[in-house]
Structure formats: structure tokens, C-alpha cells
Design brief:
Blueprint lengths: L1 E3 L11 H8 L3 H11 L5 E2 L5 E2 L2 H15 L4 H13 L5 E3 L20 H9 L3 H14 L2 H21 L5 H21 L8 E6 L7 H12 L3 E6 L4 H11 L3 E5 L3 H5 L4 H5 L8 E5 L1 H5 L1 H6 L3 E2 L4 H19 L5
Parallel strand pairs: 5-6, 5-7, 7-8, 8-9
Antiparallel strand pairs: 1-4, 2-3
């Protein structure tokens, strides 16, 4: 049974503990959302304690449902604001049970999420992993979650597999889970067709794609028209697609020397487009650890930190636009 949010009472009757029990959202997360997003505005008793209404509880349940579908809290808040501006009703599913509660009693540093997420994944516990990832997104930015929670967790999982502490199948499960969460977020951000197109993919033979996927996700978050091509993209196919679609930039990732060296002809092949040739950039662990590979592969090295790479992309595109006098598509 569904009910419009406006039909719920706005009389303040529930304390924070009651709201925690009804929604599965910890007090720490509630306070963070109120402070950062003004998501709900509870009334205060004469003693200063928060009181929430049925409408507040219903809205929080709706928010948790959207997050369970893969949205970050910032995207949910933006969607909520748009719906309110357009006077669209917000429907709350009355039959939906509250999600499992977050366990943190106070905001924790991002690093404190790594070990719990690692344990959940090696135990094949997606429900627990969902709770941890969603709590991370509730408290931190997309970039912070990706770089300070997801990436360190993947590193720990990879090391555990190489040391024989977990099986290959467990590592595949964990990688597939995290890749799925990132794909879900990538689809949430709109594809801005009026912005410069950037194609992102992995070098031939390269099957470790999460670094490239995180970079593609961050580019899309910054408003670029990102086309993500995934793992093991043959150079000739990538070039043909680029020459047909006319992107402003092409970015490829390689984590081992063999894959990296297969990109040596990429720049010269893209130059067939003449003055409108896209900028070629590359990154990945192979280039991060071996400076000689950066000398062997023509193009722009993006660096080891995607946050800094975003700034480099902005500068390269700005310079490219200036030099081509507006010929970018």
C-alpha cells in the first residue's frame, strides 16, 4: 500500500531513539543528514531534544528505499528538491519494512569502514556490505567513499587472495559486488550530451576495471559526457569508435606492463582525425609504478590520484578548446 507523504501527520511525537528503531538509520547519520542537507527539521522540546513526526519518519523511509536502489544521499536530496519544485507527490510504500540499522554510534573516519567492509565481503554478506557502503555514502562524498573506502578494501582483498587467505572465487565475489555498486552510481548520474565527450576504457588484455570505472564515475559526476567502454578494449576498435563519435578526450587504463605497452600506437592512430583529434590520456598502476612506461607511451599521464586527474582533464580540455578555436563537438 502506498500513501502520499503529505497525508502523514506532521505532529512531532517521536524521539530520536524511536526514529532509529522505525527507520534503521542511526542517530549519527540522522544528525549528519540534518546538518548537511536539512533533510528533515525536527522540532525541539523545551529541553532541546529532537522530536520527529510521522511525516519525518515516512520521508526517511523513502530516502532509505532510494538509497537501496543505488542512489547516494546527495542525489536523493537533489531528486527530492526537484520533486518539490515541480509539486510532484512523494509516495511512500507503507508495506516496506525498515532496513537494517547502521551500527555506528558516531561519525567515524572513512578508514574505519574498510575492515568491516572487507569482513562482510569475504563472508559473502551482501546485506551487511550494503549497510556499510550506504552509511559511507550517507556521511561522505562520492570521491571519499571511492578513494578512502572502496579502493583500500579492494587492495586488502587482493593482498589476501595473493597470500592465500581467501579463495579466488571470494575475490571475484567482492570485486563483482563493488563493481556493481559503482555501475549503479554511474547510471544514476545523467549523461550530459551538451558537454565534452570523454571515452574511458581499459587497455587490451586489461580486465581489472574498477580504477577506470571510478574515474569514469567521477568524470560523470563533474558533468562530462562520459562513455564507458569497460574491460579489454582493442586499440583498433577504440580508435575506430573515437573517430566515429568525435570525443574531446580518450582515457585508457592499464595495470600491467603488457597492457600498457599495447597503448604505444594509440596517440598516432587518433591523430588521423587531424586538428580535431581527441586528447589521449592514460593511467593505472602500471604507469604509476614504472616511469619508463610513461616515456614509452605518447600522451598525457593522468597521475595516481583520480582527484588530481580531474583537474588535469579540465585544464587539458580548456587548452584544447582554445587551440582548436571552438572545434570541439
Amino acid at each position: 500500500m502506498r500513501k502520499p507523504l503529505a497525508d502523514f501527520s506532521d505532529e512531532p511525537i517521536y524521539n530520536m531513539k524511536a526514529v532509529e528503531q522505525q527507520t534503521g538509520i542511526s542517530a549519527a547519520t540522522l544528525r549528519a543528514w540534518e546538518r548537511r542537507y536539512t533533510l528533515v527539521e525536527p522540532k525541539r522540546t523545551s529541553s532541546g531534544y529532537r522530536l520527529y513526526s510521522d511525516r519525518d519518519v515516512a520521508l526517511l523511509l523513502w530516502v532509505r528505499h532510494q538509497m537501496s536502489e543505488g542512489l547516494t544521499i546527495s542525489r536523493v536530496v537533489a531528486m527530492l528538491e526537484t520533486m518539490r519544485l515541480n509539486h510532484e507527490p512523494i509516495w511512500v510504500d507503507m508495506d516496506e519494512s525498515a532496513p537494517n540499522s547502521f551500527n555506528a554510534e558516531a561519525p567515524n573516519p572513512p578508514a574505519s569502514f574498510v575492515q568491516p567492509l572487507y569482513q562482510a565481503l569475504i563472508n559473502l554478506d551482501t546485506e551487511r556490505a550494503d549497510d556499510i557502503v550506504e552509511q559511507g555514502f550517507a556521511l561522505y562524498t562520492l570521491t571519499t567513499v571511492c578513494m578512502e573506502i572502496i579502493v583500500p578494501t579492494l587492495i586488502e582483498i587482493g593482498e589476501a587472495m595473493h597470500n592465500g587467505q581467501i579463495s579466488i572465487s571470494t575475490e571475484h565475489f567482492a570485486s563483482t559486488y563493488l563493481r556493481g555498486r559503482l555501475y549503479g552510481l554511474f547510471r544514476v548520474y545523467p549523461q550530459m550530451s551538451d558537454m565534452p565527450m570523454i571515452m574511458v576504457g581499459c587497455a587490451p588484455t586489461e580486465h581489472h576495471e574498477i580504477g577506470a570505472l571510478i574515474f569514469a564515475l567521477m568524470l560523470r559526476q563533474h558533468g562530462y559526457n562520459v562513455i564507458y567502454l569497460g574491460q579489454d578494449v582493442p586499440v583498433n576498435d577504440f580508435v575506430e569508435t573515437a573517430l566515429n563519435e568525435h570525443p574531446a578526450m580518450v582515457c585508457m587504463s592499464a595495470n600491467n606492463e603488457t597492457a600498457a605497452l599495447l597503448l604505444r600506437e594509440m596517440q598516432s592512430s587518433l591523430n588521423k582525425a587531424g586538428p580535431a583529434a581527441p586528447i589521449f590520456c592514460y593511467g593505472g598502476r602500471a604507469f604509476d609504478t614504472d616511469p619508463a612506461l610513461r616515456q614509452a607511451v605518447p600522451g598525457h599521464y593522468l597521475g595516481s590520484d583520480p582527484r588530481e586527474a580531474i583537474n588535469l582533464v579540465k585544464n587539458l580540455l580548456r587548452n584544447h578548446r582554445d587551440h582548436t578555436h571552438g572545434h570541439l563537438p
